[in-house]
Specification:
4 helices, alpha+beta
């Protein structure tokens, strides 16, 4: 196990030390990216559902071919605006994702995981198959690439235990026209390098959970963010607008309080009612209230200066297609 890990680290080191792409590889990748951009336009702008999904089948094939090209792991794909591209903090893998909306408002997700293989000196490519519509009780399920709880990820947090290295993913799912979802997912790789989703790392309630799924009224912006300074995942507390709405998730909204998870003793430990205020900045002392300046000039039309309100964590919902 130690030899395998050392070999993998050496491969990553060699990979990062040759970050400049060969001219021939770059030209080929640019041409492939151009083809992908043209096909992506059809995927996201065709008027009918049938045409969008037909275009997506071709896009999947082009994406797979492109990600097998030499240098694709380092290539930025900046022109491919409608595709999520997220690299692990330790540069050990990369995730590509996108979503398609059906005519009924529901979402379907697609993606690939690209990972360096130290044995072959190439890259392993794993296609992700969204089966979230079929997954019952997702917080207790062990999943894999063939059975994936689809989402768009926007943050990867690396954690280690004595058993393995885990990557905690924060994601968004535009579920349907009534509810959206956010989730905290766990990705890990077995000794063969195969990715798996879900692990009993979340201590919340009587039984540990393999992932956390939040469901709430569509179009609401729920905060779900990792605070580096606190080493904490912080999220809005959700509650139905009325007691009789319990379990009816289109009535769930943020109630103004926040909870969190802290990684301790190899687990994400649930912390209720956390302080989610942004920490004070040394630059705060340089702030000058423009309303106070207006007072000095005798032309204040904004009312008396008020104490600035503390701000909660700001999480941007990944771009919806």
């Amino acid at each position: 196990m130690m030899k395998q890990r050392t070999r993998f680290l050496l491969f990553l080191l060699a990979l990062t030390s040759t970050s400049t792409l060969l001219a021939s590889d770059k030209l080929l990748l640019q041409a492939s990216e151009d083809s992908l951009c043209k096909q992506a336009f059809l995927v996201f702008h065709c008027k009918t559902e049938e045409a969008r999904f037909k275009a997506n089948t071709r896009f999947l094939s082009l994406m797979e071919e492109t990600l097998k090209l030499e240098g694709s792991f380092e290539y930025s794909f900046d022109s491919l605006k409608d595709i999520g591209k997220l690299k692990a903090p330790d540069q050990s893998f990369r995730i590509y994702e996108w979503n398609l909306q059906r005519d009924d408002g529901s979402m379907v997700y697609y993606g690939f995981i690209q990972r360096p293989n130290p044995k072959t000196k190439k890259f392993d490519l794993f296609q992700l198959y969204d089966k979230s519509a079929e997954i019952k009780n997702p917080e207790s399920q062990s999943l894999d690439c063939k059975k994936w709880f689809g989402a768009l990820y926007y943050k990867i947090i690396k954690t280690k235990t004595a058993k393995n290295t885990y990557y905690t993913l924060l994601g968004w799912d535009g579920h349907n026209s009534l509810t959206w979802r956010k989730l905290i997912e766990v990705l890990w790789f077995d000794k063969e390098g195969t990715p798996h989703f879900g692990e009993s790392l979340f201590v919340m309630g009587k039984l540990p959970k393999k992932r956390i799924v939040f469901e709430f009224r569509a179009e609401m912006i729920m905060a779900l963010k990792y605070n580096d300074e606190k080493g904490m995942i912080i999220f809005d507390n959700l509650a139905p607008e009325a007691p009789e709405g319990k379990g009816i998730y289109e009535t769930y909204v943020m109630d103004g309080s926040y909870n969190g998870f802290v990684f301790k003793k190899g687990k994400w430990q649930y912390i209720p009612e956390v302080n989610a205020l942004n920490p004070k900045s040394p630059n705060d002392k340089f702030y000058e209230d423009p309303r106070a300046e207006s007072d000095k000039k005798g032309s204040n039309t904004m009312g008396p200066p008020q104490k600035p309100k503390a701000t909660a964590p700001n999480t941007t919902v990944p771009k919806q297609q």
